[in-house]
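Re-run requested by the PI after the first attempt was lost when the workstation crashed. Everything re-entered from the original request form. Ligand of interest: magnesium ion.
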Amino acid sequence: MSELQKKILVFGLGGAGCNTLARIAPRAPEGMEFAVMDCDFQTLEACNIENRLAVGKALTDGLSTGGDIEVGRRCAENSASQLETLLSGVDLLMVVTGLGGGFGTGSAPVVARMARHLGLTTLFFTVLPFPFEGLVAQGKAHSAVRKLRTYADAIVQMPNALIQPEGDVLLEDSLERSSRTLAAGVIGLWRMLAYTGVCNLDFSSLHTMLSYCDAFCRFACATATGEGRADALIDSLRTHPLVADSEIFEKAPGMIIGITGGSDLKLSEVQQIAEALAPKGEECWVKIGLATDPAFAGRISAIVLAAEAWKEPLVDDGRGGLKPLAGDGKQGELPGLKRSRTFGGAERTIWNGEDLDVPTYIRRKIKLPR
Ligand SMILES: Nc1nc2c(ncn2[C@@H]2O[C@H](COP(=O)(O)OP(=O)(O)OP(=O)(O)O)[C@@H](O)[C@H]2O)c(=O)[nH]1
Ligand SMILES: [Mg+2]
């Protein structure tokens, strides 16, 4: 199923990152790669991820930072060479972390800076504190988001309060629910990139959106079964708490819609979902990824990742991609986006004589049903 030519790493930072990845890993498709980092060795030991970076021994003696962002930052900075080794060769880094404590909040900007230095594409899924955690935790989280913005390509903000089940739920169920939302995001995107099938998402498209978006992305996910499942899925996505206050379905400048179903997935359902969710404006750039997986028999699942704004105006590059429209009206590179390694619009990705920027179904001459 997988012909992943680019390396994707899902990286959990701090308690929330470790806990979430520990919950995601058992339901992850084969081939997904994970790593976690913390200065709290007990948290790391309790986490079922093999690739663990235990950092900051000299600073915290294996304990947590006790909510100290500066200590979190120094732990990560002191382990720069370990981090660099971990990140070398990675093309897309998906970071999962909770903001509002010490380690994840302090180390996330360090990871983002190093990833930028190494030329990786980065997407940060950040869990924001519950209101009951207080203003200090909220303030720490917001200042970390501001710092992250400087170096991360894209940031999805997930306030803990918005990703909870309704009603008087048990704490364990509530954390399970938020992990499921995060899992849907990272696994859903990974699946779009890794699975070959009708129309998988190419790296170049994801890279384009993440690197041109003005840091913030909105994310929603849903699954539906039974009769009228496409309608139900559309409804769940449009009313998803992480996007309900936005206008992404009307006017997001960039959107990736990833749809996964079993062999019973109908073309009409795909069309219906794509038409209902994709913003209609001519200036909106939309990519649809499709994947089929026998494990999804009877179900359709979809993720939406939308850029809230571009860094600056973009134009069609004539190859289905985007390129910046420079201020003088000439097309050129977007300043600050030059990387040591790119797989965006500028360079084609050639592998074994094949141009991987061309969707698989075209390269393989797979006929789509009409
Ligand atoms: N959804 C979810 N959120 C969590 C979980 N654990 C922590 N959080 C959230 O993440 C924020 C940061 O907490 P932690 O990740 O435990 O903090 P840390 O980064 O380990 O920092 P220190 O322990 O202070 O060094 C908290 O304010 C919570 O809102 C979890 O398992 N699931
Ligand atoms: Mg901790």
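Saved to the shared folder this time. Residues 171-194 form the longest helix (24 residues).
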